[in-house]
Design goal:
The complex is a heterodimer of chains A (311) and B (263). With 311 residues, chain A is mostly helical. Helix content of chain A is 74%, strand content 3%. Chain A has one domain (2-297): Orthogonal Bundle (ABC transporter involved in vitamin B12 uptake, BtuC), CATH 1.10.3470. Chain B is α/β, with parallel strands linked by helices and 263 residues long. Classes of the chains: A mainly alpha (311), B alpha/beta (263). Chain A binds chain B through residues 171, 174-175, 178-184, 186-187, 190-191, 193-202, 208, 251, 305, 308, and chain B through 58, 60, 79-81, 84-85, 89-90, 92, 96-101, 105, 108-113, 115, 117, 119, 122-123, 125, 129, 132-133, 136, 158, 172-173, 176.
Chain lengths: 311, 263
């Protein structure tokens, strides 16, 4: 009885009791959610344009962040360090196309997926051989101050991170939908062979999309690295992107955004209000439970393309 | 029904093409030419190597022997997107559309090659990219008018019935304003009415746009009706080459199609 009460009654009383605090929880959830969206976006981009589920996305985030921090430790000014890191990510994209994708045209998705698992290990290894495996502090000059607004505690770092992520997500969504290159990217994702027959050069498209994903990884690396330090566990945030993708659908940029927000907000709200009933620490598994529920009832996600097989 | 556009000028010259997969010879020393403005059919029983021939022409396959000359330029190996740049567009036997994209978007991909604004301008959606988009959109709309598919412009092509999908695929190829159009069984799986429509579009494309067409087709009455000259393949060999009348009376062709009695 007490347990039921703590699930169905107490949380709502708490919310009604202090709506300002509830709002604060929601906002912190939104801010975390935007960051999840950003990582999920890297997956969606590559999945849309090459039909590859890129297991190495998390490693790319780590690799970008490590490179950036490494350069800054060598005394390279922030601005140039970011430019050089971006150049490194483009170079990485070119290498991936030349050494991996080119040889796997028209192969099954699972084969490409396996290849990205290999890529994951290479990136993790190379990144740590080059820059070491210590936890590093990253400071790119984003303001990190906590202030009070309307009775809520907010953090400038979270806010600016969310703002940057939001801008990036919007720009990419528009780019995909309304430009010729965006259309070419979607075409490649849909059918390699048909895309080649209308004169879309597969190779340069792949380089573009992996570079963009590298750029997204860099931004995610900067934001997460500033928040939590640059360390090996950055790879694991990719795991958080999975439930986001399952909710939002693997092929939808808006889906990645909304999925990220739902997970971010859901996690925080559930932890704060329902946590006590389960003895806390719900935050860790709530996202996966939600994803599981989605897999059972709506496997294509909220916005994914419904798979209809013609027979 | 020979078209008036046919000239003596050779647009595509295929010489001594041999292609094998492992030990299987798909094509064995095939030579023929395609004149500017004509409708050229490739016929033959299943497995004769017809699609392989098209795949060689647009660069999906690289024949081990022989050479292909298109618009006076000879090549041994070529990537499909290079072939498209040269002015070769095609459709596929099993429709290969971008099924998640709308009819209009599919047709717009056909314009992709002609877009010159770089990614930077496109990303900003400004300046040259914007002007280009409008320009290409006009061409795409003309194609849509031509094929009478206005009412499905915004429909994702995956949802369209088979016959319409075939038409959209033709539209995508036409949007590239090709010099040479390769059609791989454009009428396969269609009912009589749809076939008649498709025939009309093919003849109109040839007649009004002056596009040279190479097509593979099984329906003999269609082939004999619309093509200027016919190549007959059988087990990767060339059996005959000539006008429909010549091919129709060729003994080898009759044997291949009707079978021959062994004594």
């Amino acid at each position: 009885m007490e347990f039921l009460e703590s699930i169905f009654i107490l949380p709502f009383l708490d919310i009604a009791d202090s709506p300002i605090f509830f709002l604060e929880v929601v906002i912190s959830g939104v801010l975390a959610g935007v960051m999840y969206s950003l990582v999920a976006l890297g997956f969606v981009l590559i999945f849309k344009a090459s039909g590859v589920f890129n297991f190495a996305q998390g490693a790319m985030v780590l690799f970008a962040a490590l490179t950036l921090v490494g350069l800054m430790e060598q005394g390279v000014p922030i601005f140039f360090a970011i430019l050089i890191t971006m150049a490194v990510m483009v170079l990485l994209a070119i290498l991936i196309e030349k050494m991996m994708l080119r040889h796997l045209v028209n192969q099954e998705g699972i084969i490409l997926f396996m290849a990205t698992i290999g890529l994951n290990f290479i990136l993790e290894g190379v990144g740590q051989i080059a820059w070491g495996s210590d936890v590093k502090k990253l400071d790119v000059g984003l303001p990190d101050k906590t202030f009070e607004y309307g009775g809520m505690l907010l953090n400038t770092l979270d806010l600016s991170a969310a703002l940057i992520a939001a801008i990036m997500v919007t720009v990419l969504a528009l780019f995909f939908q309304y430009t010729g290159t965006g259309r070419a990217l979607r075409a490649v994702a849909d059918d390699h062979q048909a895309a080649m027959s209308v004169g879309i050069p597969l190779k340069s498209i792949w380089i573009i999309v992996w570079s963009v994903a590298g750029f997204v990884a860099l931004v995610a690396g900067i934001l997460w690295g500033t928040k939590a330090g640059v360390q090996f566990s950055l790879v694991l945030i990719a795991l958080k992107a999975l439930p986001v993708l399952i909710l939002g659908g693997f092929t939808s940029i808006p889906g990645a955004i909304i999925g990220g927000l739902i997970i971010g907000v859901g996690e925080k709200v559930v932890e704060v209000y329902w946590g006590p009933a389960f003895g806390g620490a719900i935050e860790g598994w709530f996202a996966y439970m939600l994803a599981l529920a989605f897999l059972m009832f709506r496997p294509q996600g909220l916005f994914g393309e419904k798979i209809i097989e013609r027979v | 029904m020979a078209t008036q556009h046919t000239t003596e000028e050779v647009l595509l010259d295929v010489k001594g093409i041999s292609l094998s997969f492992g030990g299987v010879k798909a094509l064995n020393n095939i030579s023929f030419d395609v004149r500017k403005g004509e409708i050229r059919a490739i016929i033959g029983p299943n497995g004769a190597g017809k699609s392989s021939m098209l795949n060689c022409i647009n660069g999906f396959y690289h024949p081990q022997e022989g050479e292909i000359t298109f618009k006076g330029e000879t090549r041994k190996q070529m990537q499909p997107h290079k072939a498209a740049e040269q002015g070769i567009a095609r459709t596929f036997q099993n429709i290969a559309l971008f099924s998640g994209m709308s009819t209009l978007d599919n047709i717009m991909t056909g314009r992709n090659l002609k877009m010159k604004a770089n990614v930077f301008w496109q990303a900003l959606h400004l300046g040259p990219a914007r002007r280009e988009e409008v320009e290409h959109r006009e061409v795409a709309e003309r194609v849509i008018d031509f094929l009478e598919i206005e009412q499905i412009r915004k429909t994702p092509v995956g949802r369209l019935p088979y016959g319409l999908q075939k038409r959209v695929e033709l539209g995508r190829a036409l949007a590239a304003e090709p010099d040479l159009l390769l059609l791989d069984e454009p009428m396969a799986g269609m009912n009589h009415e749809e076939k008649e429509d498709m025939c009309r579009y093919i003849l109109d494309v040839n007649d009004q746009l002056g596009t040279t067409i190479v097509l593979i087709e099984h329906d003999m009455s269609v082939v004999m009706d619309i093509s200027d000259r016919v190549v007959v393949l059988d087990y990767g060999r060339m059996l005959a080459d000539g006008t429909p009348d010549v091919v129709r009376t060729n003994q080898d062709v009759i044997n291949a199609y009707l079978g021959v009695t062994h004594e």
